[in-house]
Design brief:
This protein is α+β, with helices and mostly antiparallel strands. The chain has 11 helices and 14 strands. It binds adenosine-5'-diphosphate and magnesium ion (MG).
């Protein structure tokens, strides 16, 4: 039984004992939606980060870990078309970690990202572990009543879009596995010298070192697409949405399953990260495979009905979108077209307990 089989089991168990009519969406989406009094719904997401599984301690500066712990939850709130407001962070660590500056650096990184989006750290818990760091990040946000964008709203004929570029975070993991590490430059210096995110077009030649650092940052310090989430939700543009945490093949499959539809995507339309193409093409790693099955890009994958496509902004916060395919009625099957052949795209993204 893998992670998703168990979640399905829990979902069936809760369905038969639903106590609260105010749970609009329980298990089965990026976040839960709970009706508030008034004209707002509360949107709640929770993410667990475990040392050795979700991050490698010696490859992950504490400040970036704090950033990422919040970023992954902000990404889930964005994928509901909601606006984030409150963060609750619980953390457990061994005594020897407690005695270092880890905890201060962690919360410095987390609070810097929270400030960027006007999010308040409103609570949490602290405990000691025998081994390893464990972080539980909860974020609460709000949407107008009934306006949360669910995974289940995609309809035949809707067009499929993604924000930004894909494959960089997975390439970052491969680099970490091969021993690459964030350089001694300050984070601010690195960000300033990094390629503008979402940049596409011709690959200007970059030194390999810069490209490697940029890919490591995409893995260790993802940028949640909060602005796009709010626009797509508040302007009622997306019919369905999910964030790319497990990998495009798996996350599109989740969206199609919940919507009871299929999808056909065109490999030529998938926005591959330029650094991935530049580095991986030369290292016998297939950039398309990283984009399809590698996780943690934390871009938004969403569907839009044909009549609303003209209303989509070109960019939000400097991040562009790409149309990668369309929703089909062939229930729950995702297919991909490449050159002159089309095949079924099996969900091969990340699963715990696979
Ligand atoms: P995401 O990748 O967007 O964070 P997950 O794949 O982690 O989503 O979770 C999918 C769904 O399963 C969510 O609705 C989540 O709330 C639910 N879920 C996961 N673990 C549990 C659990 N232990 N108890 C109840 N619901 C869970
Ligand atoms: Mg998600």
């Amino acid at each position: 039984m893998n992670e998703f089989d168990f979640i399905d089991q829990l979902r069936r168990q809760t369905r038969s004992r639903r106590h609260s009519a105010r749970v609009i969406k329980g298990i089965g989406d990026d976040a839960s939606v709970i009706a508030e009094t008034g004209d707002r719904d509360l949107v709640v997401t929770t993410d667990l980060l475990v040392e050795g599984i979700d991050f490698i301690r010696n490859a992950t500066p504490a400040r970036l870990l704090g950033h990422k712990a919040l970023a992954v939850s902000l990404s889930d709130i964005a994928s509901m078309g909601a606006r984030p407001f409150w963060s609750f962070v619980s953390i457990g660590m061994p005594r020897e970690t407690w005695d270092t500056k880890f905890k201060n650096d962690f919360f410095e990184g987390l609070l810097a990202l929270a400030d960027q989006f006007g999010v308040t750290l409103a609570g949490g818990d602290v405990s000691e572990t025998k081994t390893g760091i464990v972080i539980d990040s909860v974020v609460l946000g709000e949407v107008a009543s009934g306006a949360a964008v669910l995974r289940s709203g995609a309809r035949t004929g809707d067009q499929v879009f993604v924000t930004g570029t894909l494959g960089a975070a997975a390439a970052g993991v491969k680099l970490i596995e091969k021993g690459a590490r964030i350089s001694g430059k300050s984070e601010v210096e690195r960000r300033e010298s990094a390629r503008p995110e979402g940049a596409s077009g011709s690959a200007d030649v970059r030194p390999d070192d810069d490209a490697i650092q940029s890919l490591l940052l995409r893995q260790l310090s993802p940028s949640p697409r909060v602005g796009w989430g709010i626009v797509l939700g508040e302007e009622i543009l997306a019919t369905a949405m999910i964030d790319l945490s497990d990998g495009l093949s798996s996350d599109l499959s989740h969206l199609c399953k919940e919507s009871n539809v299929g999808a056909l995507i065109d490999s030529a339309l998938i926005p591959l990260d330029e650094d991935v193409k530049h580095l991986c093409g030369r290292r016998a790693l297939d950039p398309l495979a990283l984009a399809l099955h590698g996780g943690e890009d934390f871009e938004l994958l969403f569907t839009v009905s044909p009549e609303n496509i003209a209303r989509l902004p070109k960019r939000v916060d400097g991040i562009a979108i790409s149309r990668i395919g369309e929703i089909r009625c062939d229930a729950k099957t995702v297919r991909i077209h490449e050159k002159d052949r089309t095949w079924e795209l099996k969900p091969e993204g990340y699963k715990h307990f696979d």
